[in-house]
Design goal:
CATH topology of the largest domain: Helix Hairpins
Largest sheet: none
Number of domains: 3
Shape: rod-shaped
CATH architecture of the largest domain: Orthogonal Bundle
Radius of gyration: 70 Å
Structural class: mainly alpha
Strand content: under 5%
Distance between the termini: 36 Å
Number of helices: 13
CATH class of the largest domain: Mainly Alpha
Helix content: over 70%
């Protein structure tokens, strides 16, 4: 409750009037001396008394003595105003913080009052009545000061209890709040990583859509070309059949020519044989002509012998001789003609044989060509069949590729919607994370045991989240502005006197390594990302993740040891 009693009311209630204040001022020299002696005796007393010695064993007594003497001078001889009221109340708050109980506090006032009385009574410059009047005035001021201090003491005690309750409440919820913060930040990190994955999936899906569309276009073109090839193959097969038929007709014609040449050779050979018979007959005729000529010669000789009687016979013999000569000449002409005929016949026969051989060779070659043509025809038929099958398959593939293109486009569309939905979810999660972060910062204002170590767990998850958001393109970071492992909340505690108090424990020593890695790898990841090396940054985040897990685990172990 606020203090509603004024300073004038207090002066009136404690019987402090101007006369009393003037009396105190008039004996300042005696009071200064008495206060100095009383305070020296007081601090000697509390340092040696068993009920108070432990409260002041590690306190700078000289400093306290100077502050106490300054306060007493201000109380007795200073300006009594609102500032004086606040200073008196502040004294109670200070005593509360150092653990001085009301018992020790009131006992201290009692000791100082008794010492002042003793010092003033022993002052030869003062009479007993003066000491009595002076102590009455001083006692009023002392009682008012003690009341002010005790009222502030009570207020401070209530505030302290409230603060203790608040601290206890804060301590009771800080771990759950930190756990919630860690969980939410882990979710946010997972969402950012999922967002990054969806972004990559969307990019790949877009590439696939383009590739599938290009493939569909290519398959369509191939299908069209395949149809043209199939038609060309059918035409080729038709032309092959026609060519085969022509070759078969040609082979038949060659065969007929070959047969005709063979028959001609036979006839020419028959002619040659007939010519040979004529030659024999010519030989006979030639012999007859020779004998006739000889007979004619003999007849002529006999006719000459006969004289006139043989003239008629001689005429006949001359005619016979002339006929014989003509026969011989005709026979010679026939022989020469037959010779030329034989020569020509031999040439014809030889030519006929060559033609027959050529015809037979052509016939054999044509048969071989027909065999090759059959093979080609079979191959063309097979190729045509396969081409038609391929054309049919390509038509099916064109339909399938069109469906695939549509499906891939739908997948890409769904992926983009998922990406946008997740992005909205991340925004909502981010707001909750910020609220939890604000709550942790608020709890950090309370006096919580091992506060820096506990909150450091949340700090490290938040650190990871910032890096994940950066890689996902949701946050920009500057490596030069990031805290090192010495300057973060945990680092400041770790390298402080408070932290080094636990420097000999194994878990404390083990914490430094992974904590350093978290910051160094994280800062390097930021540099790599800002340099355009996104993949390298992602790999560095894996190192941060592993080291951060070790940090959180070691912090939990350290908290258990600290408790």
């Amino acid at each position: 409750m606020p203090d509603t009693i004024s300073l004038d009311d207090r002066f009136n209630y404690y019987g402090i009037d101007q006369a009393a204040l003037d009396l105190v001022q008039a004996h300042r020299d005696q009071l200064d001396k008495a206060i100095t002696s009383a305070i020296d005796a007081f601090y000697s007393f509390i340092r040696n008394h068993p009920l108070s010695a432990d409260k002041f064993s590690n306190v700078n007594i000289e400093k306290l003595r100077d502050l106490q003497q300054s306060h007493w001078i201000s109380l007795l001889f200073g300006q009594h105003d609102d500032r004086f009221l606040q200073e008196s109340k502040a004294i109670g708050n200070v005593h509360l913080k150092v653990g001085v109980t009301p018992f020790l506090y009131v006992g201290g006032y009692n000791f100082v009052c008794k010492q002042l009385t003793t010092e003033l009574m022993s002052d030869p410059s003062l009479e007993a009545s003066q000491v009595c009047s002076l102590m009455t005035a001083v006692s009023g001021l002392i009682m008012m000061d003690m009341e002010l201090a005790l009222s502030a003491y009570v207020d401070a005690s209530n505030s302290y209890k409230a603060a203790e309750s608040a601290n206890q409440f804060a301590e009771s919820i800080v771990d759950n709040t930190i756990t919630l913060s860690m969980s939410l930040n882990d979710v946010a990190i997972e969402n950012s990583q999922m967002l990054l994955s969806l972004e990559a999936t969307s990019e790949k899906a877009t590439s696939i859509v383009v590739a599938v569309e290009e493939m569909a276009t290519g398959i369509s073109a191939i299908a069209s070309n395949g149809q043209d090839v199939a038609e060309s193959a059918e035409k080729a097969m038709s032309e092959t059949h026609r060519g085969k038929q022509i070759m078969m007709d040609t082979s038949e014609s060659i065969h007929k020519v070959s047969e005709s040449v063979r028959h001609s050779v036979e006839k020419v050979q028959s002619l040659a044989e007939a010519t040979a018979g004529i030659n024999e007959m010519i030989k006979i005729i030639d012999n007859i002509a020779s004998q006739t000529n000889l007979l004619a010669l003999n007849a002529t000789i006999e006719a000459a012998r006969a004289g006139d009687a043989g003239k008629g016979f001689a005429v006949v013999a001359g005619e016979v001789k002339s006929l014989s000569s003509q026969t011989a000449k005709a026979t010679e002409d026939i022989r020469q003609t037959i010779g030329r005929l034989n020569t020509e016949t031999d040439a014809i026969v030889e030519a006929m044989h060559a033609g027959s051989a050529a015809a037979e060779s052509s016939e054999q070659a044509m048969k071989g060509s027909l065999d090759v043509m059959d093979t080609i025809n079979n191959m063309v038929e097979l190729a045509t069949q396969k081409t038609l099958e391929i054309s049919s398959i390509l038509e099916e593939q064109r339909s399938v590729s069109d469906e695939l293109s549509k499906s891939t486009a739908e997948i890409n569309s769904v992926t983009r919607r998922d990406f946008e939905a997740l992005d909205s979810t991340i925004d909502a999660t981010e707001k909750v994370v910020q609220l939890i972060g604000d709550q942790i910062n608020m709890l950090a204002n309370f006096d919580i045991r091992h506060k820096s170590v506990r909150i450091a767990k949340s700090d490290h998850i938040i650190w990871k989240k910032k890096l994940a958001d950066m890689v996902a393109g949701r946050q920009s970071l500057d490596a030069d502005e990031l805290a090192s492992h010495h300057n973060c909340r945990l680092g400041k505690w770790y390298y402080s006197e408070a932290g080094q108090h636990y420097g000999n424990t194994a878990v404390f020593k083990a914490l430094e390594g992974p904590h350093k890695i978290v910051h160094e790898k994280g800062i390097e990841a930021v540099r790599q990302y800002n340099a355009g090396n996104r993949e390298t940054a992602v790999k560095l985040l894996s190192d941060v993740e592993k080291a951060s897990e070790d940090v959180v685990r070691l912090l939990d172990e350290l908290i258990q040891k600290l408790d």
